[in-house]
Structures are given as C-alpha cells and as structure tokens.
Amino acid sequence: MLSYRHSFHAGNHADVLKHTVQSLIITALNEKEKPFLYLDTHAGAGRYQLSGEHAERTGEYLEGIARIWQQDDLPEELESYISCVKALNQNGKLRYYPGSPLIARHLLRPTDKLSLTELHPSDYPMLRNEFQKDDRARTERADGFQQLKSKLPPPSRRGLILIDPPYEMKSDYQAVVKGLLEGYKRFGTGVFALWYPVVLRQQIKRICNELEASGIRRILQIELGVRPDSDRFGMTASGMIVINPPWKLEQQMNNVLPWLLKHLVPAGTGHTKVSWIVPE
Length: 280
Ligand code: SAM
Fold this sequence. Notes:
- The chain is of the alpha/beta class.
- It has a single domain (6-278), classed as Rossmann fold (3-Layer(aba) Sandwich).
- Helices cover 37% and strands 19% of the residues.
- The radius of gyration is 17 Å and the shape is globular.
- It binds S-adenosylmethionine.
- Residues 2, 4, 6, 18, 40, 42-44, 99-100, 117-120, 123, 143-145, 164-166 line the site of S-adenosylmethionine.
- Its EC number is 2.1.1.266.
- GO terms for molecular function: 23S rRNA (adenine(2030)-N(6))-methyltransferase activity; RNA binding.
- It is an enzyme of class 2 (transferase).
C-alpha cells in the first residue's frame, strides 16, 4: 500500500520539528572534517510545491513553516534549517518546501555522500530528477528498511541515518524498531534519527519500551505536541528518537522548543519534551 503522499503534509508542524533536528545533527557532524554518509530511508519527493493542489487542500504548512520562517527573533538553533527554506524561496514568497533530502543537500559538504531511497512511483522520479546532477548523491527506488542492512556501515564510518516512514501500515511501528536494531548492530557509532507521529500514544510507548529493553544506550526522545493526546483526532504530536545524538542536541532542543511551541501552537494546547529513553 503506497497511498501516502508527503505533498499533503509538507511544512507542517511535524516537518518543522523533524527538519530542525535533522539540520542540527548535520551541523554538528560538519564540525569534524572527516566526511560522512547521510542515509535517508524514506526520502519522499525532495521538493514540495506549497501552492500546489495537495498542500493547498490541507493547508497544513500554514500552521507550520509559514508561521516561523520570516520571524525576526529566530533562535540560532533554527538558522541552518530556515536557511534551506529561504534558499528555495528567494523572492520572499513561500512557494516551495524542502524535504529532508534537500535540507541535507544544502547543508552537506562536497566530500559527504547522500544515499536516498523512496518507493512511491510518482515521488521517486521527482527525487531522482532533483539529484541527477549531484555527484555526491545516489537515489534508488527501493525499500527503505532494507537499506539499514545493505548500506551500513558506510565506508567513512560516520553517518546520519534518517528513518521517516509514513506509518500508513500498522506494521511500520514494529518495522522501525527492527530496522533500528539491525542498523545499530552494523553501525553502532552512527547517529540514527527516527521520526514518529503520536496518533495512539500506546504505539509510541511500545517503541520506547522496546528500545529501552534493547541494551542500546544514549537514546534521546524529542517531542512537540499541538493538542492533548487523543485517539480520535489523528496526529496530535510528533517526535524524534535519536540514538547517539551529538552532545549539544539535548540543550539545543531545550532552547528552541519553547519558541517553536509559542509560534506553532499559539492556542496553548501543546507540549514539548526532551528526555532520555536511555542515558549514557
Ligand atoms: N523524509 C521525507 C521528508 O522529510 O521530506 C518525507 C518522507 S514521507 C513521511 C514517507 C515516504 O516514504 C513517502 O514518500 C512514501 O512514499 C515512502 N515510503 C513508503 N514506504 C516505503 C518503503 N518501504 N521504502 C521507502 N520509501 C517508502
């Protein structure tokens, strides 16, 4: 089943959280000279047209990126992320939103590598076209979870692995844990970043419990909620689970989440969280 299209959701509050964390991790990896691999298991189309039919139909970006990208008091933790958004929208109008592969492309250095997989028959060709002229990148129409076995460890022995499935199938909630364990077994020093939606809180508790029981250490959980948990209203929050986070990430997210909450959830119905599922 491949009915999910990210173009309906691009730039929403969940993308803002995910891409903030992604850009902070890449910025931290850039601090060391040695090149690294950026592996995006569920890469999407790469670029999303916000004036297109899909994004206009839901208007989700209006309550996400549109609320923050031109704020004057932008926290420094958002600078690299927002610089990617601005690079795509140079005339001051918000027409395009960069997906995770474009954010990586903007922030990676000439010596780093990108490995991007996407399965959807419409989104994959768009992704491939975006990266046709980028020698650092390899795109494949392939199963993302499989990459956690076949692409790890990278030759450079440094890397960020973003795992961002649509969770349209309930089995994704189990597949992400299995995939993380398989990836970690091969590449225990990599930075793994898993995105999750809070639709049923129990599903996320199960992921956290399974990771806690796995024996893996240094697992950080970051969350931004827009409404109280409920099993009736779809996604009420989203989060990132990061294995081996850069040492500054916890503090950076503690700094920036209150600002994001204020701007993205002005109604005051939201919450934030930064806590260790398993510490050092
Ligand atoms: N990571 C993207 C970003 O942040 O811009 C968004 C990805 S979107 C949430 C999930 C994507 O996974 C969809 O484009 C979907 O077509 C794709 N997908 C679904 N199942 C997949 C699989 N098994 N392997 C690879 N991609 C898959």
